[in-house]
Amino acid sequence: MPRVAIVIDSASDMPPEVAARQGISIVPLEVSFGEERFRALVDLTTDQFWERLLALPPDAPFPTTAAASPGEFQAAFEGAFDRGADSIVCITISADLSGTYKSAVIGAGMLEGREIHVIDSRTASMGFGMLAQVAAELAEEGVSAQEIARVIEDRKSDVDLYVTLDTLEYLRRGGRISGASAAVGGLLSIKPIITVVDGLVKKIDQVRTRGRARERTLELLTQRPLERATILHTTHAEVEAFQDQFQQRSGLDPSRIQTMTVGPSVGPHLGPGAVGATVLLKR
Fold first, then answer.
1. CA–CA separation, 136 vs 279, rounded Å?
2. Cα–Cα distances in Å, from 281 out to 98, 160, 195, 222, 266?
C-alpha cells in the first residue's frame, strides 16, 4: 500500500509529541530574541519561549519570527521519503501571514519527480494543525496523496478560529495593528477578539471586560455544529473554565476536543492571557 507522509510547520502550534503519535512531521519556523535565533519547537520549546517572553525587560527587543527556509522543507521531505513514504501532503500557515508556504513550494521543487502536494491552509495555528490530523487519519486508511490533498483543499472552508486577547500590545509590537489603536484599546481596557479571514488576521469584535470577551468568543465558536476542536491558550489564560464551558455549549464528546498552548511561532503576536479555539465544522 502506498504510504503518504504528512508535513506541517511549527505555526500550527501542534506539540511535537502529538505530531509524532500521528506520524506528522513539523518544519520549524525561526524565532529570534535579539541576536539569539532558535528553531521553534526544536531549539526552543513552548515553555521556554513563554519564560523568555515574560521575563523581557521593557526596553528589550521584541521577539520576531521568520519563515521556515526552503532547505528545511527539502530536508523534511527527503527524510519522509527515506523513511519509506511514497508521497507527501504538506500543509502550511496562510501564505498571507508568512513566507513559509512559498518556502515549502520551493523545497518541493528541489525534489524533481517526487509526488509532493503543498497546500496553503489560509489559516493559522491548529486551524491547519487539525487539517493535518484529518490528513494523517486519511493516510492511515490508505487514501492516496492526491485524494487527501483534494479533501484538505475542500475542508479549508470548514475551519473557524476565534481567540480573545488580554491586550492589543503584542499585536502592536508584532506589527499587526497601529500604535494608536493599541493605545486606545489599553485606555479603555478593550479585549479584542481576533479571527483569520481570507488568510489574514482580523479583529472581529472588541469587548470591555475579559469575562464578556470570553463569553462572546464562546458564542462565535459554538454557533454551528462541530466535528472537532482545539482549545488554544497562552499563559495566565484561565483555560480550564473556558474549556469546560466550550464542551458544554458545543456538545462535542471530550475525545473530540484537544487543548494546546500556543507556541513560539504564533505566541509573540498574542501575548499572555489569550484564550480561544479553532474548530472544524461538521459536514
1. 17
2. 25, 8, 15, 10, 23
Percent of the chain clearing pLDDT 70 (strictly above): 92
Q: How many CB atoms lie within 10 A of CB 110?
A: 15
**What grid cell was written down for 13?**
502550534
Is this model's pTM higher than 0.90 or not?
Answer: yes
Distance CA 25, CA 77 (A): 9
- Cα 20 to Cα 14, 15, 128: the distances in Å are 10, 9, 16
How many angstroms from the chain centroid is the CA of residue 92? 9
Q: What's the DSSP call for residue 264?
A: T
Q: Is the pLDDT of residue 187 over 50?
A: no
Domains of the chain: 4-32+66-156 (3.40.50.10170), 159-281 (3.30.1180.10)
Long-range CB pairs of 56-60, under 8 A, 24+ apart, other chains included: 60/33, 60/34
In this structure, are residues 168 and 201 in contact, taking their beta carbons and an 8 Å threshold? no
Say which residue the cell 473530540 belongs to: 256
Pairing of strands 30-33, 36-39: antiparallel
Model confidence pLDDT, tens digit, residues 19-66: 999 999 999 999 999 999 999 999 999 999 999 999 998 888 889 999
Share of the chain above pLDDT 90, in %: 81
Check the CA dihedral 96-97-99-102 and report its sign: negative
Q: 124 near 161, Cβ under 8 Å?
A: yes
Residue 36: count other Cβ atoms within 10 Å of its Cβ: 12
